[in-house]
Amino acid sequence: MGNPFIKNFKIFTVYLLIWVFISLVHNAVIVFLLDVKLEQAFTESIVYNTLYFLLGISLWYTVSYNTLENYTPVKIFINHSAAAIITSAIWVLAGYYILINIFNDDKIYKSYLFNSGIWRFMIGIFFYAICVAVDYVIIYYHNFQQKLFRESELNALVKEAELKSLKYQINPHFIFNSLNSISSLTLSNPDKAREMTIKLSSFLRSTLSKNEKQKSKLSEEIANAKLYLDIEKVRFADKFEFVEELDPACKELEIPSMILQPLLENAIKHGVYESLDKVAINLKCKPEKEYLKIIVENNFDPEAVPRKGEGIGIKNIQNRMKLIYNQDNLVTVEKLNSLFRVNIYIPR
Amino acid sequence: MENKIKALVIDDEKLARDIVKTYLTKHPSVELAGECTNGFDAIKMINELSPDLIFLDIQMPKLTGFEMLEILENPPVIIFTTAFDQYAIKAFEVNATDYLLKPFSEERFAEAILRATKQIENKNDNTKQIDGLLKHIENRDEYLERVVVKIGQKISIIPVNDIKYIEAQDDYVMIYSDNGNFLKQKTMKYFEQNLDPAAFLRIHRSYIVNINNIKQIELFEKESYFALMNDGKKLPVSKSGYQELKLIFDK
Hints:
heterodimer, A: 348 residues, Heat Shock Protein 90, B: Rossmann fold, five-stranded parallel beta sheet
């Protein structure tokens, strides 16, 4: 976030007006209470307040580096105390030398200026505290708004993913072809037809129920994805083989729901649908540093000419992962000769 | 009827073929001549067996049902079997002999057989029907991703990204691609409308080029330009083509 006192015209104007007001008060106080000559009072208030007006803007930088994300509260307090003393000292001395040079001949004013130094210093500390407090309020308000914005964006995306998953996973092509398989099986193998009906129902049910939840256990997601694969297996018999390698330590970890199944669907669509030969689909889940790494890979016919829709599913997952974890590069895609691999890193 | 109807079942899913085969056993007038699982095999089989009737799925590996139709010279009567394809269904309604939406009932199947039988008996020429169907399919609001061509017995699939440029040649177009040149019976207008305008531009009455393949535009003589392609070939550019190229290259 850039300095709002420079970048934001509204904040800048308000800030300027506040300093004009402070200057007037300053002027009034020293004229009426301390009997300073009007001309001197006017110059003094302009010099000192202009100086702090500038200092105040630059204080933003000390604040934006001293956030709770970077330092402990104690450290921040120490940093600011030191900064307050230094800033105030610079302010008082700078003003003092400017005014001394302007009113060099007036001894009374000079001694007044000298004696009031300690008071000015205190006021400097006070200004510092106010400026810093305002800066923090701005920063946290800004962050808060951003968080709200991100959350609403995430919600919209999840909603969209839900709708899409309803449309995709309950992809009409998949559904009607599965129903056709069942219809065919009722003639040749009623037991298998019943089994497939049950699998299809479980898959639809779990897909429908998962929508509200954002995350679920890896083992649950794998179970759901396997239901899907089982159904495709009935349709495509020996056209693909699924192998999973699941590190037991990962089972209970949570992953965003509706990420694994679309990936496997992708593998089926671009691997199995387009290939005449057998396709191997591998799923590997293992811990890697502070991540849970999920790999989905499938071989594909490199000669098959790509059709529409390639990459959209993965793009969707990339977007969702970015919004959920606020981190880039959590989903990477590798295409090697005839192997297509998607790596997903889920922060733990 | 003396002669049995020779039928072919084309579908990549075994269970889907099975049900057609099972239903067919109740129709002694139709004889199952064969079955196949993809468009390539299907074309070979159709040429070998010249069936009277085919049951054709649309989504298949290698060649889709529609791409198959594009390169079949004497297409038999077709009953489409498909699960879901909104564009296709619309096209069928207008043009196909019949279409069966999976899963379909035995009664519905019998109806389709009846219709097809009539058409075969009347020896209706269905080329027109298929042309109409393909025209309808062309009107999808998606751009082409691949072009299927057949030269002799060889079928090639050209990804549109591999196309360098297309040249008009009477009733045909010549497609120049990374993998050779292919003649196809389509109009320039068809390609102009169905190729992604972000990548392809008609620079001249006789030329559509892949913009990524243009090396530079050169002045030939006053107000006359040609496009130098990456492979060194020079193609004429019309006035309006030049204006559009300028717009693209100035971006």
